Amino acid sequence: MSLRIDPRGGTVVVTLPPRAGRTAGMALLMDHASWVAERLAALPGAIPFAPGAKVPLHGTEYRIRHVPGRVGGVWVEKEEILVSGEAEFLPRRVADFFRAEARRRMTELVAAKTAIAGVQAHRVTVKDTRSRWGSCAASRNLAFSWRLVMAPPFVQDYVAAHEVAHLRHMNHGPRFWALVEELTPHTNAAVTWLRAEGPRLLRVG
C-alpha cells in the first residue's frame, strides 16, 4: 500500500494491492491524516490558463490577455501572452501554444546535445507526465514534460542533457554523470531549482 499527493490535481492517491479492500485504504488514509493535511496545505495555488493569470514561460512571467478582436492565435508581446478567438477556447489555445513551444525548445536542445555526444535520438515528444521531467526509452525516443517550457533555460538545458546522456548510458553510473557534465554546466543549479519550484509548474494550466 502507498499514499502520495498528486501535486497537479491537488488530490490524494492511495494505491492498494489487488487483495486489499477499500477498508484498508481508508485506514491507511486516516492513519496519515495529519501528513496528508500538511502536504495539501503546502501545495502552491492552482493557476488556470485564464485572462489575467500570470504564468511563467522560459522562466519569465507573462500575463494572459484575451484579445478577441485580433487574429493570430497565441503570441507573446512585451510582458503578455495574447490570445485571440472566442473566450471559451482560450485555455485550450494557451495549452496548445505551451506544448508547441516546449516541443520546439526541447527538440532544439536535443539536437545540440546529441551533436556534442555523438549519439542520435529517434524521436522527441512532449507529454504531461506526473513524476518525470524527461525520459529515454530503449527505442531511443526521448519524451519531456511540456511544463519544462515554463522553467528557466538553464533547467531545460540540464533536462535535455540528462536524457541525451541516457542514449549512451541507460543508467545513472559514473560514466553517465561524466557525460552529463560534458553536456551542461547547470546540473546542480537545475536539480535544486526543480526540487524547489517543480511542484509550482504542476499547478499551472
Write a compact overview of the structure shown.
The chain has helices at residues 22-31, 33-42, 90-117, 153-166, 174-183, 187-201, and strands at 2-6, 11-15, 54-57, 60-66, 74-77, 80-83, 123-127, 134-136, 141-145.
Structural class of the helix and strand makeup? Answer: alpha/beta
The helical percent reads: 40-55%
The radius of gyration computed from the alpha-carbon positions, rounded to a whole number of angstroms, is 20 Å
Beta content? 15-25%
Uncertain runs with pLDDT below 50, 5 residues or more? Answer: none
Spatial order of the strands in the main sheet?
A: 3-4-6-5
- The counted number of beta strands is 9
Distance between the termini: 30 Å
Number of helices, counting only DSSP H or I runs of 4 residues or more: 6
Can you write the helix and strand succession as a string? EEHHEEEEHEEEHHH
Q: In one word, what is the shape?
A: globular
Largest β sheet strand count, sense and barrel closure:
4 strands, mixed
What's the mean pLDDT score? 92
Structure, explained:
With 205 residues, this protein is an alpha/beta fold. Helices cover 42% and strands 20% of the residues. It is built from six helices and nine strands; from the N terminus they run ββααββββαβββααα. Strands 3-4-6-5 form a four-stranded mixed β-sheet. Strand 1 and strand 2 form a beta hairpin. It is globular, with a radius of gyration of 20 Å. The chain starts with a strand and ends with a helix.
